[in-house]
Amino acid sequence: MAISRRNFLKAAGFTGAALVTGCTPTGKTSGTDPKAQSEALGNILSEAQKTHAQIFNMSGYCAPKIENVRIGFIGTGNRGSAAVERMSYIEGVNIKAICDVRPEKAQAAKERIKTTGHEAILYTDGDEDWMNVCKRDDIDLIYLCTHWELHAPIAIYAMEQGKHVALEVPAATTVEDCWKLVETSEKTKKHCVILENCCYDFFELLTLNMARQGFFGELIHCEGAYIHDILESFVNKEKRYDYWRLKENAVRNGNLYPTHGLGPVCQIMNINRGDKMEYLTSMASNDFNTNNLVKEAAKKDPYFNQYIDKPFRGNMNTTTIRTKLGRTILLQHDVTSPRPYSRLHTVSGTKAFAQKYPLPGKISIGHGGFLPEDEYEKLNKQYTPAIINKIGDLAQKVGGHGGMDFMMDWRLIDCLRNGLPVDMDVYDAALWSVMGPLSEWSIANRSNSIEIPDFTNGSWATNKPVDISLAVGGTTGVQESAIKGNTNQINI
Ligand SMILES: NC(=O)c1ccc[n+]([C@@H]2O[C@H](COP(=O)([O-])OP(=O)(O)OC[C@H]3O[C@@H](n4cnc5c(N)ncnc54)[C@H](O)[C@@H]3O)[C@@H](O)[C@H]2O)c1
After folding, report:
1. Which of 236, 298, 305, 327 is found 20 to 30 A from 422 (Cα to Cα)?
2. Nearest CA to ligand 1 atom 2
3. Ligand 1 within 6 A of 81 CB?
């Protein structure tokens, strides 16, 4: 039986007044009928206005050390199968299970670790076999790379079964699920780590360390984005399971993929750890591209007829956020226009400025322009953080978005093995992901502002910033001789 999201939540006991299954909104394009949209998305507003009593503060939480981290992978398509291979190179990792609803994908992922001595059991017996992975008592970490709709339900179930979870971006697509992730992580004291690999890209880490050392002075404004022309892939059967990305973009109008641009700047601004987001406002263009693509695709394959004239997400989304300390963030999202890839990554402070896109990253200390290459290199040397010095070269050898994927995985395992707080905890997962539904509400309401929930319940004021010094930990080795190099990974 195919498990629907509603059935699963019911099976897992998520029923009653708190269950708002309408959280995935109708997503009509902005400007059609604001009143009707406002009503349709009203549950987003009410969920966003919720508060909660913190059960336990997961920020800075040191879980018991796990010397040998036993992992179960769920969802081994493009992203998951590359993760299986990367993880197999890290010492102190044991891959116990690989689960995918498509048996050939699970098998292919297993093929990638033949040479590294892992004995993964395959779970391919239908839509619900992932539950059997979560139930195993010899697994410590569920590494989750399915399509978006299953992220929160599987993560919640896994934590309930006593597993730490690392889950792909975004962690959830509704405000309600963001709250559930927080509450479950606090209740179970299990980490819920969002796999925001862009936090581990080289320039992002450099600017994080520069910010920590005061190079930018006080931070005023940051920018992030996910601008990547992946339009054609929406109608390519080979690219994604069951056209899930087309489906998301056909019914939701907002910043659906906020975390790549947002994660790094939140760490730089100490959001959830010294500052907090207060409200956002979001605006979207109309769709000028996706419907045309679908009409063309339908000429060759009648399957796509059902998508013609759907209320597709407006191509460009621009969201602005204001923080408690009076700082601002600009966030953009466009995956359906022909333009160069960009995550913006802009950091503006009282003393200096940094910008990564267009490439390469650049630093400025005034209106006269960017520093010349030799001065940039001096700063690069001075401020390169310990994690890059330790693992950067190896990470580049493994590959996966230039190495950032491997640095992320290595750091996650090192934190679990040493009982250290994770860099990206459940509050980050919830906050960075909640931009999706909140931006949908704002767009449907003529860009009116919406309150951003404080998932930390006030502990943001005293939570400690992410520690990237490697003063503790850093003890996890890598099976260098096994590295095949350039882990096959589609561009993000
Ligand atoms: N961080 C990054 O750089 C990055 C890059 C690409 C994708 N992603 C994220 O990774 C996730 C997966 O993306 P993808 O491109 O690999 O998609 P994909 O469609 O290739 O992979 C998803 C996999 O989940 C499997 N699946 C579906 N239902 C399942 C079920 N009930 N049980 C077990 N497996 C099931 C599918 O068969 C498929 O193999 C998404 O959340 C995406 O946003 C992140």
Report:
1. 327
2. 492
3. no
